[in-house]
């Protein structure tokens, strides 16, 4: 059984506001995209990596991906995150349904081997796996600037990535989604939850370091984290990850 990581880098980073897609910005002396690819490339149970890049930037992504032996292809993404996932699913059309696939935001450069290992452990028992953390803010629902709901905070989690699936499950969910004219989604577990509601989604713990670089301030935070991780480098070398020979 093959395990494939998909690094979704098809966005253009409008909220960061840089002229280049944010995944090409350097933190800790290397592009954000390189950090994300390296996290999977250095993780023993990952067999292959598929990089999905924003249109017009494939040469840059191909150069960044070149040193990583597990990268099987760099392909062009779509106009939305979901369309980039669909491009990945099309590229994986020849893979069997039981393939394990981890869909990860390139904008989360500090995903670590422990998180990847927890996802893969859980994929041994579940067809869909999410990574999450509790919220330290109170989260409310709003409509037209009026508060319409206040879910109890202890029932809420902030989703991170990777999100892990048996390929057949995420494939089927997207097939159903494509038949829905009202389809919208902000993540892949949301697609499985909506279109295959009987499929349980197992939640595993993420980390505060696994932040998504979204706004300019996140770049500052990312530089700081990269500096901290550089000091811990010996702990991140291959063989030091949580042992997950799955
Ligand atoms: N068409 C898209 C849009 C997003 N993504 C990826 O999905 C992840 C999360 O998206 P987000 O943080 O929203 O990235 P951007 O779309 O680049 O940012 P923005 O919404 O600010 O433009 C990122 O790694 C991004 O590259 C993608 O693969 N294809
Ligand atoms: C997938 C995700 O990172 C989970 O928190 C998030 O939904 C991506 O949202 P974005 O607006 O595409 O950054």
From TrEMBL:
Site for Positions MEP for the nucleophilic attack, residues: 153, 212
Source organism superkingdom: Bacteria
Name of the encoding gene: ispD
Protein family membership: Belongs to the IspD/TarI cytidylyltransferase family. IspD subfamily.
Known pathway: Isoprenoid biosynthesis; isopentenyl diphosphate biosynthesis via DXP pathway; isopentenyl diphosphate from 1-deoxy-D-xylulose 5-phosphate: step 2/6
Keyword RNA-binding: no
NCBIfam families given in the database record: ispD (TIGR00453)
EC main group: transferase
The protein's name: 2-C-methyl-D-erythritol 4-phosphate cytidylyltransferase
Stored InterPro entries: IspD (IPR001228), IspD/TarI (IPR034683), IspD/TarI_cytidylyltransf_bact (IPR050088), Nucleotide-diphossugar_trans (IPR029044)
Keywords of the record: Isoprene biosynthesis, Nucleotidyltransferase, Transferase
Biological role stated in the UniProt entry: Catalyzes the formation of 4-diphosphocytidyl-2-C-methyl-D-erythritol from CTP and 2-C-methyl-D-erythritol 4-phosphate (MEP).
Site (Transition state stabilizer): 15, 22
Entry EC number(s): 2.7.7.60
HAMAP family membership: IspD
Entry annotated with the keyword Transferase: yes
GO molecular function: 2-C-methyl-D-erythritol 4-phosphate cytidylyltransferase activity
Catalyzed chemical reaction(s): 2-C-methyl-D-erythritol 4-phosphate + CTP + H(+) = 4-CDP-2-C-methyl-D-erythritol + diphosphate
């Amino acid at each position: 059984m093959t395990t494939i990581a998909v690094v979704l880098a098809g966005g253009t980073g409008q909220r960061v506001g840089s002229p280049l897609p944010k995944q090409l910005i350097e933190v800790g002396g290397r592009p954000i995209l390189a950090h994300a690819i390296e996290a999977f490339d250095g993780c023993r149970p990952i067999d292959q990596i598929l990089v999905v890049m924003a249109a017009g930037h494939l040469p840059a992504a191909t150069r960044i991906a070149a040193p990583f032996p597990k990268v099987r292809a760099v392909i062009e993404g779509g106009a939305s995150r979901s369309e980039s996932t669909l491009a990945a699913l099309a590229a994986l059309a020849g893979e069997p349904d039981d393939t394990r696939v981890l869909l990860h935001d390139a904008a989360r450069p500090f995903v670590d081997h422990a998180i990847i290992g927890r996802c893969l452990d859980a994929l041994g028992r579940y067809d869909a796996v999410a990574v999450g953390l509790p919220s330290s803010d109170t989260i409310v629902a709003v409509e037209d600037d009026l508060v319409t709901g206040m879910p109890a905070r202890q029932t809420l989690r902030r989703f991170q990535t990777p999100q892990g699936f048996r390929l057949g499950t995420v494939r089927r969910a997207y097939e159903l989604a494509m038949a829905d004219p009202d389809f919208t989604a902000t993540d892949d577990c949301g697609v499985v939850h909506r279109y295959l509601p009987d499929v349980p989604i197992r939640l595993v713990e993420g980390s505060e370091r696994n932040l998504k670089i979204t706004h300019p301030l996140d770049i500052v935070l990312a530089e700081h984290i990269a500096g901290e991780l550089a000091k811990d480098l010996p702990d991140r070398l291959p063989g030091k990850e949580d042992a997950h020979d799955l």
